[in-house]
């Protein structure tokens, strides 16, 4: 009878461990990502977690697992904080994070400008930090559509791909082609 009770107790403990395994697996992955970046990092997110790539002017760039509802400022903090040459005014730190998003912290360029501001019309513009004025320089994008893009990006916690912009009002197939040529995620 004692062995039977012990077997039932072990089965109950085992069943509880299996059910809670999804929540318990997130903590080691987050700890691993904090210290080693993307090395040995499982990309599948559990529950409401999001996985983001933090790069640019941060102390520890890498891929990090963040809790659902986290903001860009939280991801920058997880990446060791901004580097000394970070131009934080070039990024919306209050935006919510989206799974698969790349957070690019711009570097301060010559004469105090951000690298994104210093860029000429030749190179691609970062979708994560583009301003209304920068988007307005793209053929087929006016100030209203540029503002719609920035608003959509902020409401949805960023954009993981240029293809997501087809959900923004005022962007048709021809505009999408211009955006693909001039923007990077």
Distance between the termini: 63 Å
How many domains?
A: 2
Return the structural class: alpha/beta
Mass-distribution shape: elongated
How would you characterize the overall build of this protein?
The chain has 8 helices and 5 strands. It is an alpha/beta fold and 185 residues long. The chain has 2 domains: 1-108, no CATH class; 119-185, DNA polymerase, domain 1 (Orthogonal Bundle). It is elongated, with a radius of gyration of 21 Å. Residues 22-45 and 115-121 have low confidence and may be disordered.
Would you summarize the structure shown here?
With 185 residues, the protein is an alpha/beta fold.
Write the layout of secondary structure elements.
Elements: H1 2-19, H2 21-24, H3 26-36, E1 50-56, E2 62-66, H4 72-78, E3 102-105, H5 115-118, E4 125-126, H6 132-136, H7 143-155, H8 173-182, E5 183-184
Parallel strand pairs: 1-3, 4-5
Antiparallel strand pairs: 1-2
Keywords for this structure?
DNA polymerase, domain 1, 185 residues, alpha/beta, two-stranded parallel ribbon
């Amino acid at each position: 009878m004692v062995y039977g009770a012990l077997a039932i107790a072990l089965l109950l403990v085992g069943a509880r461990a299996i059910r809670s395994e999804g929540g318990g697996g997130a903590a080691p992955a987050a700890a691993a990502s904090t210290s080693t970046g993307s090395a040995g990092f499982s990309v599948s997110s559990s529950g409401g977690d999001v996985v983001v790539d933090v790069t640019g002017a941060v102390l520890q760039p890498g891929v990090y697992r963040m809790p659902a509802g986290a903001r860009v400022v939280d991801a920058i903090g997880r990446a060791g904080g901004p580097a000394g040459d970070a131009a934080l005014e070039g990024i919306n730190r209050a935006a919510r994070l989206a799974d698969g998003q790349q957070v690019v912290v711009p570097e301060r360029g010559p004469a105090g400008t951000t690298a994104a501001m210093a860029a000429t019309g030749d190179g691609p513009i970062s979708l994560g930090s583009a301003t209304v004025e920068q988007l307005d320089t793209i053929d087929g994008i006016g100030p209203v559509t540029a503002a719609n893009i920035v608003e959509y990006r902020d409401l949805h916690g960023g954009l993981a791909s240029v293809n997501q912009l087809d959900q923004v009002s005022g962007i048709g197939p021809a505009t999408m082609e211009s955006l693909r040529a001039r923007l990077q995620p």
